[in-house]
Task: structure prediction
Amino acid sequence: MAKIGINIATGSLQQNEMIVGIDLGTTNSLVAIIHPDTRQPVVLKEHDGVSLVPSIVHFGGQGQVTVGDEAKKFLVTEPQHTIFSVKRLMGKSYADIREHSGYFSYKVIDDNTESLVKIQVGEVFYSPVELSSLILKELKTRAEHILKTPVTKAVITVPAYFNDAQRQATRDAGKLAGLDVLRIVNEPTAASLAYGLGLSREEVKTIAVYDLGGGTFDISVLRISGGIFEVLSTNGDTYLGGDDIDRTIVQHWAAEAGITEDELRVHKNLSQELRLLAEAAKIALSSSESYSGVVAEQAFSLTRQQLEHLIKPLVDRTITCCINALKDAGLDTRDIDEVVMVGGSTRVPMVKNSVSTFFGKKVHDTLNPDEVVALGAAVQADVLAGNNKDLLLLDITPLSLGIETMGGLMDVLIPRNSKIPSKAGRQYTTQKDGQGSMRISVFQGERDLVKDNRKLAEFNLTGIPGMPAGLPKVEVSFLVNADGILTVKAKELRSGVEQYIEVKPQYGLTDAEVEKMLMESITHAREDIQTRALVEAQTEALQIIDTTRQFIQRNTGFLTATELADTLHAIDELTRLREQGTKDEIQAGVE
Ligand code: ADP
Ligand code: MG
Result:
């Protein structure tokens, strides 16, 4: 039942506050809601019918900030003051994006490669979170203008491969824009929801979501069962999209007209006009057979057939990614029940046909491909508003999460590919008598030694009351919430002392890094098992040595001189073995 409130001061009815769905895209961003009357998702549009807001921020000389189409006009004339594709920088360090630094025409700071990137505009430094928040603030303002009501709650979408740091950064950007971000949702999940896939409990389906946007390509394989979404695999190319189609057309025209690459580089206005004409041609050719236009008093034309010939290599690359995604999910094209088309570039008929041919079935393309993600976010927002209780959304963790234990070993609490939300706990104890604090170091990765994994966070549980070693019971629990954000809690059960930390990693892992970490864990598996056995033997030896020393100290009087000498000798011997011996030698020493 819906609740209605009455504002006593004004006597007006207070409606349930609207939760909006936001697609914060690399190229375009937009907002959608569930229409209160029709109960259908709709995209919010200005009077002129425009729904897409280019994800571009321009800083003017007097500090004025513009976002969207207005900002886009400055891309060529003021490249240093016009920020595009900020989504690519979310949760990243300079080291993460170094190989693509040529892509950004504004100033990305690289003085400290380990920390998060900053963008310099004039004398001011901005973080990607701040820049994204400017886009979100603009979306919020426009939505409030259209809906004529305050908008403070939102669901924001992110690519399925976004890691903790990138999700957290997106959430922070929302907070900074004055939005309470109720949920971060995967873009492919949202797109499926927009088509009503997975809305009923009985449904069990495997879905491929093909998303070709302005600058990125993502393919995701999802499984829905019992109202739960699971990401089986993701693949793609973070530098492949509609922009590359435009560039290919410009190159083709330039070659035809005898314009050299150098000339294009020098004549920025000419190259910008050609690029705009190329995009116009591409868009026109999605519905007609030929196009012609004029730039600098010269005519340029293109047919659909020519375009298809030009972009064949790009389309083939996306199909290769699809093959890889299926392989990772352990599936065949026949296992895919539904194919969902997302992203403005899937409007190109050849793209649609190639995907349909590859999967051997009709694709879902009845909704606007550049709107489906926002529409699905609105569906999810509606679920969170309590209007559709059947639905639950689930993702998986890309890498194992655990803590460091004795000898630098990784103790995994939540294994890789666990469904989230996910919870796990384990009990630990102290190593020394009277130990008052315990260090909890949280790591992510697949290797047996924490030094080979990635440290996410560290904190001290202090105030453990004085007890003999082994007596305190410290329960460490991990909670990965539905957004994929990890909270670690440590509690000493006898005294009730507790401490917790929300894990906000320093910077994000690239897909390549995740892959590399997984590969290394496989290549080093044998070595890791040996190291683990050795470290365990060393730890056991150390414990025996400590306990025996304490025993001798307390009970010297009960021991004969030979017993004492023998024991001390055994301790020395084991100490030496612990440092230099093999696993077997140490174990023999312990015996
Ligand atoms: P993103 O997800 O990267 O924010 P979108 O999904 O909004 O981006 O896709 C933007 C891209 O779609 C641009 O490259 C744009 O030129 C392209 N696009 C939009 N409409 C069409 C069309 N009718 N035909 C071909 N490409 C199109
Ligand atoms: Mg998109």
